[in-house]
Amino acid sequence: MRLHRLVVTAFGPFGTAQEIDFDTLSSAGLFLLHGPTGAGKTSVLDAVCFALYGSVPGARQSPGSVLRSDHAAGGTPTEVTLELTVGERRLEITRRPAQPRPKKRGGGFTTEKAQSTLREYDAGTGTWKGLSKSHQEIGEEITQLLGMSRDQFCQVVLLPQGDFARFLRADAEARGKLLGRLFDTRRFAAVEDRLAELRKAAEREVGAGDERLLALAHRMAEAAGPGSPAAVPVEERPGEPGLAEAVQTRAALAHSEAREALDIARIRLAAAEERQAGARAAFDAARELADRQARHADALRRQDELAARRPECERWQQALDRSLKADRVAPALALREDAERAHRTADAARDRARAVLPPELADAGTEQLSAVERRLREELGGLEAARRAEQRGAELAAERAVLDREARADEEFLQDAAVWLAGWDARREGLKRHAEAAQDATARAEQLAGRLEPARRRLAAARRRDTLAAELTTARDQLTAARERRNDAHEHWLDVKSRRLRGIAAELAAALTPGAPCQVCGSDTHPAPARTTADHVDRTAEDTAYAAYTRADEARTAAETGAAATAEAWEAARKEALAGPDAADADGGSAAEPTVADLTRLVDELSRAHAEAHALAGQTHAAREALGAAEREHEERVAAQREAERRVAARTSRREALEQQQADLEAEVAASRGESGSVAEYATLLERRIGLLTGAAEAVRSAEVAARGMKDADDRLADAAFRAGFATPAEAAAALLDEPARRTLQQRVDAWRSEAAVVADRLGDEATAAAAALPPADPAAAGAAHSHAERALREAATVLSAVTERCEALDRLSGRAGEEVRRLGPLREEYERVARLAGLAAGTSAENERKMRLESYVLAARLEQVAAAATARLQRMSSGRYTLVHSDARSGGRRAGLGLHVVDAWTGNERDTATLSGGETFFASLALALGLADVVTDEAGGVRLDTLFIDEGFGSLDDQTLDEVLDVLDSLRERDRSVGIVSHVGDLRRRIPAQLEVTKARHGSAVRLRTGGDALSG
Question: What is the pTM of this model?
C-alpha cells in the first residue's frame, strides 16, 4: 500500500482545504511530520484512517466527538480525499461525515448524512471510473484489499509508540488483548467457548439422565408399596457412578416380590370363581321354577275371562256374516243414490231457468222454447247493416272532436306567438348587452389576478419581516451575551494555562520515582526536583477551563450563525415586501416601508374586485348561449305561426264534409234501433234473450232424463236385495258396514280366538303342570347366596388386578430404567471426553502443565515470531547489545505463555523488558512495532505496506542512539518503503531534509511541504 495524495477540508484543526503530496515526501524515503503542540500532526494520520475506514483511531472516535473543524466557514463541507495504490490498483476514496449545514429554506441548520465515494484510475483511458457510493461496499472492498481491520492498520501503519512502550511493560493479560485484536484469534477463543458449552451441555444431559433414574426409582418404590425392598430410598446422588447399579438392584427385588404375590392372587381368584358358578346355577333354577308356577296360575285366570266373553264374540261374528251378504247389494244402492242426486240437481236447474222467462213461457216445453229462439236469431241477423252505420257515425264524431281540439290549440298558439314576437327586439338587445359585459369582465379579471398574487406575496413577506425583526433583536442580544461569556471563559482559560505552565516543572517532578529515568532529561538521578507553589493548578483544572471555553466559543459561533441567518431572512422579507407593481398604491406613493395593515387592505380590495369580475366573466358562455337560443327560438316561432295559419284554413273545409256524412248515417240508424238507445244496445238485448231460451230448453230436457234414470235405479235395487236374502232394500242398507267398522270387528274376533289358543297351549304344557304340583319356590334366598359369592369373586379379581398392575408397572419401570442406563453410557463417555478437552483448552486441566489457554498458546506463537522479527532491528539500534525473546514461564500464580524478556549481551543475563531505561524502551518498542508490522503484513496475505508513520518518542534518545535508529529507519527504503516520523524534536529537523510542517493560527491550521536545503535551513 502506497499513499499518493491527501486532501482534507474543514477537518479537525484545518479550517480550509489542505493538500499533502505523499509522492514528493516518499521519494526521500524518510520524512518528518512536525509542528507545535495542538497544530494537527495527529489529525493528518486521523484523516488517512478516516478515508480508509470511515472512522478515526481510539478515543477520538468516541460518542460526542466531532470531526468537523470549528474554524470552517458555514458553507464549507467537511471532506477527506485519499489517493493510494493497493495491489496494483490506484484508488481514490472521498468521505464526508455526518455534519450540520444551513437549511436551504428558512433559518437554522439540518444534519446532512454521511457520504462516501470510491473511484479507480484506468491507465488505458487515463480517466477515473466510479466503483461505489455505499459505505458498506467501500468498507468491505478496502478491508479485503488491505487484509487488515482498522485496529490492525492503526497498530501496523500508524505505529503509536506509546502503545508499544506499554506493551513492553504490560502483563500477559494486557499483551493478550492487544495481540488478539491484531491477529484476530477470536476463532480460538470461540473454540474454547464452544468446548465449555459442550461440556456444560453434556454435564446437563448426564445430570438429567441421573435425575430421570432417581425419578424411576421413586416410582418403583411407590409401585412396590411399603415394606418392599424397592421402597428403601436410593442413597446415591446424581452424578455418582453407583447410581445406575443401585436402581437396577432395587428394580430386580421389587419385580421378584410382585411375581410371587401375583401367583397367590390367581389361585384365590380361581376358587372364588368356582363358588360363584355353583351359586349362580342354584339361583337360576329357583327363578325358573317360580316363573313356571306363575305362568300356570296366570293361564287359569285368563281361561275364566275368555269363557265370560264368548257370547259377545259370537255377536261380532254374526254382524260380520250379514255385512258380507250386504256387500252384493252395495253397487245397486250406490247407483240409486247417484240417480236420486242427479234428479234433484236437474229439477233445481229447470226451476231456475223458468224463473227468468216471461210469464207466457213459464210452463212451455222444449219444442215451444226452441221455436221462440229461432225467431229471435233471425231478427238479430237483420241488424248487422244498421250496426256498421252506427259505428261509422261514432268514428265521424271522434274525428270532429279531434278537429275541434286542434283548432283550439292552434288558436292558443297563435295568440302566444303574437305576444312573444311583439317583445322580441327589446329582448334581443338585452341579451347582446349582457354578453358584451361578460366579455369585458374576463379581461378585467385577468388584469386583477396579475396584481392580486404579488400583493399576497408582499403581505406574507411583510408579516415575516415583522416577525423576523423581533427574532433578530432577540438573536443580537443573545449574541452579545454569548460573546461576553466566550471572552470571559477565554481569559479564564489563558490565566489557568499560564499558571500551570509556570509550575509545570513541579508537576513533572511529582511524577518522578527513584531509579526511573526523567521524561525530560532521561537521567535516573533527581537531585533537586521542583516544588509546587500556592497558586499552582493541575491538568484537570486546565482541561475544565478549556472545556468551558470551548463550549462558550461553540455557543458564540452558533449565536453568530443564527443571528446572521435571521438578519439575512429579515432583509429578504423586507425587499420582497417593498417589491411589486402595487408598491406605490400600498403605501400612498411614499418611499416608506408598507405596513401589514396597508397591504392587508390592498389585498382585500383586489380580492373583492377580482371575485366580482371573475363571477361576471364566468357568465360569458351562458350569455352567448342564451342569445343564440333566443334567435333560434325566434326563427322556430315564426315558422310555427305560418304552419298554424295553414292548418286553420284546411280544417274548416274538412269539418263541413264530416257534418254532412254524420247526418245521413243518423237517419239510417234511427229506423233500426227501435226503443233502444242504439243498434248495439238492441242487439245485445236480443242476444241475452236467445241465451236464456237456450238454457231453459236444455234444463227441461235434463230434468226429464234424470226422472227416467231414477225409476230404473229403484227397480234394480229391489231385485238385488231380494237375491241377497233381504226382505227390503232398507234392511240390506242397515246390514252394510264400512271398511273401518268391519276391520274393528274382525280384529276383536281374532284377538279372542288367539288368546284362547295361547291359554290352551300353556295349560297343556307338561313342565308347567309339573312345576305347579311342586311346593312354592324361594328365589330370594338363592339370590342372596349368589350375591355373596359375587362379592367374594369381585374382591379376589380386584386383588389380582392390583397385583397385576403393580407387576406391569414394575416391569415397565424396570425396562425404562434399563433403557436409561444403556442410553446414559455413551453420554457419560462423551461428557468425560469433552470435559477433558475443555479443561485442556481452558488451561485448568492437570494435563496442561503451564495452565496456558488455547488462545494464549496461538498468541504465544505469534509473539515468538514478532520477537524474532523485532530482534533483527533491535540489535542494530542497540549496537548488538539487546535481543528480544519470548518466554512461556509462569509468573507467580498467573498463567504462562505471553512473557517477553530482553537478553543483555553485555551481562549475558535475561531480564524483564520493564527494566529498560526510557531511551532503551523507545527503540525497543520501535523495533517491536516494526517487527509486528512485518508479521501482521505476512498474516494479512503479504500486502506490501510502502508507507509507515512513527509517532513520537525520539526525544528520549542520545545522539549516537538517534543516529542508529535513523539508520535502521532509513534502511527500510531498501524494501521501497517510506517512513514518516511524527515528532517535534528540533534535532530531527536538522537531520531529515523532507518535511511536512503543520502550523496553527487563529483561523485554523495549515500544512507546508519543505524539502532539501529549505527544510534544513528552516
Answer: 0.40
